[in-house]
Amino acid sequence: LVVLGIESSCDDTAAAVVASDGRVLGEAIAGQAAIHAAFGGVHPSAAAAAHAAAIESVVAEALARAGAAAGDLSAVAVTVGPGLSLCLDVGVRKARALSREAGLPLVAVHHMEAHALVARLAAAAAAADAAGGGGAGAAGAAAPGGVAFPFLCLLVSGGHNLLVLARGVGDYLQLGSTLDDALGEAYDKVARMLGLKLEPHGGAVLEALARGGDPGRYALPVPMQRHPNCDFSFAGLKTGVRLCIERELPPEGHPDREQIAADIAASFQSVAVTHLCQRVRRGIGWARDALAAQDSAGSDSSSSGGGSDAGGSSSGNSSNSSNSSSSSNGRGGDCSGSGRDGSGALRQLVVAGGVASNAVVRQRLGELAAEAGLELVVPPPRWCTDNGVMVAWAGIERMRLGLFEPALPPLQLEPGQEQEWIDLRPRWPLTTEKAAGSTPRV
Ligand code: ATP
Ligand code: FE
Known about the structure:
Layout lengths: L1 E6 L4 E8 L4 E8 L1 H5 L6 H23 L8 E7 L3 H18 L3 E5 H20 L20 E6 L4 E8 L2 E6 L6 H11 L8 H9 L24 H14 L8 H44 L47 E5 L6 H13 L3 E3 L10 H13 L32 E2 L8
Parallel strand pairs: 1-4, 4-5, 6-9, 8-11, 9-10
Antiparallel strand pairs: 1-2, 2-3, 6-7, 7-8
Catalytic activity: L-threonylcarbamoyladenylate + adenosine(37) in tRNA = N(6)-L-threonylcarbamoyladenosine(37) in tRNA + AMP + H(+)
Keywords: Acyltransferase, Metal-binding, Mitochondrion, Signal, Transferase, tRNA processing
GO molecular function: metal ion binding; tRNA N(6)-L-threonylcarbamoyladenine synthase activity
């Protein structure tokens, strides 16, 4: 399989061509940070206009780098949600047009699932490199050195802060979610409060500033100490930082300003990462309990108890929000969460999403994973923030399970009328089930 992935859910227009053996054949991206800096956040109609201006050239560039024409592809994968509808629409229209023109199947991709699954591509590619191989080999399977289901996954990005047990493609048990902001959003807001430049990302600029700072200088409150669950909250910490800035940060031109800003940034980052670590430590226990309960339920019934039990194994997948149900009329359209390829034991912690490109996040979660006997897997930084590779790869994972739409027929509609073969899903929950104790929000 060779799949083109298209991403336009927020402020990056991205495309990539990826082969099912894990080779990334071509990538292209157009960011919009400079456009949104003036608004203090992503401005939906400005973002949609920028996507519309960039989409043709980004897709053409990814194809050109891959040395491929649309007709050489096996399918087009596109992010259909969650995200800004005006923005998603640009990518989905382009994917529909390619599907029609070249007779390609379409794969509807969940943006957060793409963030999570690209770790499977990255880990297998790294293992193949270490072995001196070319591509990622059996990247989607339980390859040695790859990432196999089930795994614990912390998704930390601009719009999401989720801790999930990934049991299979389209099959995620929610352990924790944020009650307010996501950590990426908190990084962006603190960067703005400190008057930093927000390009390419506020979070990356804040991390760079924090490198020269003392993380112990300002005592900020670690969130949610009285909530013994796996949920997150960053609003209180953000307020703490604001008050600290008002109290401590001298005006522009003051000789100590830079150092104090760095100390505030480092103190914020340290407490935020402590919060992540505390929740993940508890989540490891919850995930192990959930797997043990699943195993004992499996051994009570006629289930095979692990192994490759795709499709029919999703008994726990009772929610009506199963993200696999998007494939309404494709082959396997009624196949709910599947692709489980691991037995019960938890072996890996995956951290993904834009904030996972942060070195302090990687280091401290790596230490925690090692203590708990887990391997930490984090995609390379360019695949942590939004990119086309993750969408193409998620497309490949879904194609393998039959979760795609057939090629669109030539258009036979009235002018101005458009058939919605793939619906946009701006609010699409990732999780199919929630652990007891997790809040209802996703
Ligand atoms: P979502 O994936 O939830 O829809 P998004 O797509 O906007 O949101 P991503 O592109 O995954 O988010 O990640 C961008 C976020 O990651 C931004 O909030 C950015 O500040 C943050 N980020 C990027 N690099 C770093 C870094 N080095 N340290 C901390 N945060 C970072
Ligand atoms: Fe994202």
